Amino acid sequence: MGCRIEKLDGVKKTGSSIAYGCDELGKLKSVLVHTPGDELALVNESNYKHWLYDEVPDVSGYIEEHRRYQELLESNGVRVYELADHVTENRDMISRMPNITFLHDTAVISRKGAILSKMRPPARENEEVVVKEALNNLGIPILNEFNGEEGFFEGCLLLSKETIFVADTERHTYPFIREFILNILSEFDEVIYARIPKARRYMHPDTVFNRIREDLALAYLPAFEETCLFTKDSRERIDFKEFMQEKDMEIIPVSDSEQSRLACSFVPLESGTIFHYDIALDQDTRKSLSGEGVEIIPFHPEALLAGGGSLRCHTLRLCRRKNKIKLKKRVKAVEKA
Q1: Distance CA 279, CA 268 (A)
Q2: What is the DSSP secondary-structure string of 234-303?
Q3: How would you write the pLDDT of the chain (337 residues) with one tens digit per residue?
Q4: How many CB atoms lie within 10 A of CB 151?
């Protein structure tokens, strides 16, 4: 007998699962994380580059900072699920995966189900297998996954219930992107595709673009080499900034230095409030965000920097609740009226 399915404030919940869906930029309600453990001991001076680390991590410091981040999430009302608590069949694999703490890279959770990645580097092989088991055990269905052997796809961004953003990075192969676009257009109205330089600093979509509110985002625009809009019936080349402005979204550009410090890779707590490394943004960008009424909840990294990832990388967002949106410009318009 199938599970009863309900729709709750833009998310879905089955009779035997947690609520899920992050299509809309509402209040963050739940996340999946992996507290790093013994697998970090695999990373040493001779192999840290193979494991995609920038340096050998201070294991105790790395774990402590990750726990501190979890406490920050929980103190702001976010339910934190631990990966290992929802994995049994593939649990032994976790001890051989020093990168699985970067859960954000492995899946995106829409109201229709999870979009699973197919991880590219040998160091991250089969991470999606472990994550799929956890999502199944949490009751989150799989909307899209890749079963082919010859290709890779590490993530996309949900911009709304209608729109997905896909960046063609070094962690993607175009045949898998093409397959994804053809398949996902049966569930979404449009896909924005951007070709991005094939370099580590641009490895995932959120290294070049991320929403703060429905009407505000940060982006590193020089990375957008070509952008196209795909729908069921058409494909057209677009200017990304102009297209987003037509959708009433303002883009605050970040500098080359900021992009290299993962300026675009943050975690929105709710529309207009973000968790972010306190070293990621220049003062001018902070001033621009402050002028827009954006609140930054800062986190200072030390040991976590060895992994080369952001807070967002450590956070697989499961559920957002639709809430009242902070739209500074619209509030001003009401005040003037």
Answers
A1: 17
A2: -EEE--HHHHHHHTT-EEEE--HHHHHTTTT--EEEETTEEEEETTSS-HHHHHHHHHTT-EEEEE--SG
A3: 233 333 444 555 444 579 999 999 999 999 999 999 999 999 999 999 999 999 999 999 999 999 999 999 999 999 999 999 999 999 999 999 999 999 999 999 999 999 999 999 999 999 999 999 999 999 999 999 998 778 999 999 999 999 999 999 999 999 999 999 999 999 999 999 999 999 999 999 999 999 999 999 999 999 999 999 999 999 999 999 999 999 999 999 999 999 999 999 999 999 999 999 999 999 999 999 999 999 999 999 999 999 999 999 999 999 998 755 444 443 333 333 3
A4: 17
